[in-house]
Amino acid sequence: MPKSIHQSAFDFSFEEPATETIVPKEVETVEATSETVAAPAVVEKSKRGRKKKVVSLMPKTPGKRGRRSFKEMEAESDLVNIPEDEALFSKQYYSMSEVAEMFRANQSLIRMWANEFDKFLDPKKNKKGDRYFRPDDIKTLQLIHHLLRQRKYTMEGAKEYLKSQKKKGTDPFVMIESLQKLKAFLLELKASL
Fold it and tell me: What own/partner pairs with CB < 8 Å and gap ≥ 24 does 63-67 have?
């Protein structure tokens, strides 16, 4: 019921219902997909006009909190953007933010890898404590990323692998990387024919 002109804003009478249910005018049926879609909602308002509760008419989609699934990590592992060796070795040091951007990961993850694999990585620190990675460190990080994200090694397993490769002196990761480049070149050549 509308209030009369003589009632003040601070007059709380019980003439109004305690809650109202308001449904948007443009309610359409939308199919549920994995993408986030703005869904119509039912909003209950308290007697003071404040929003009390929002109830979505769409089924809940999983949020982005917590640990990512293995499928998401595997899809992102292919998106690593390490420049070619000539471009990579043109700079002497890379900041933490640049390295995190190359691996499309949080800086905290790169920092954790630097702490866990301290026998294999040696980033330089300035007086403030900021880490700066050399191109060789970035190549080692690329190998660590490959072991942990693509080959699904544990931290201890990756450390053992790196120790064994250090003793052998050979690095099959370099060979795999060059073969993948050759494959991409041949597929591009085949597509152009």
Answer: none
- Looking at the whole model, is its pTM more than 0.85? no
Question: What is the tally of helices (H) and strands (E) in the chain?
Answer: 7, 6
Domain covering 70-192, topology: Multidrug-efflux Transporter Regulator; Chain: A; Domain 2 (1.10.1660)
Residue 184 has pLDDT above 60, yes or no: yes
Residues β-bridged to residue 20: 45
Categorize the per-residue pLDDT at 178 as very low, low, confident or very high, splitting at 50, 70 and 90.
Answer: confident
CA–CA dist 90, 135 (Å, integer) = 9
The span from the CA of 190 to the CA of 36, in Å, is 39
| Predicted pLDDT at 58 | 47
Q: Residue 43's beta-bridge partner residues?
A: 22, 54
- CA angle 74-138-90, nearest 5°? 130
pLDDT of 147 strictly over 70: yes
**Bridge partners of 149?**
none
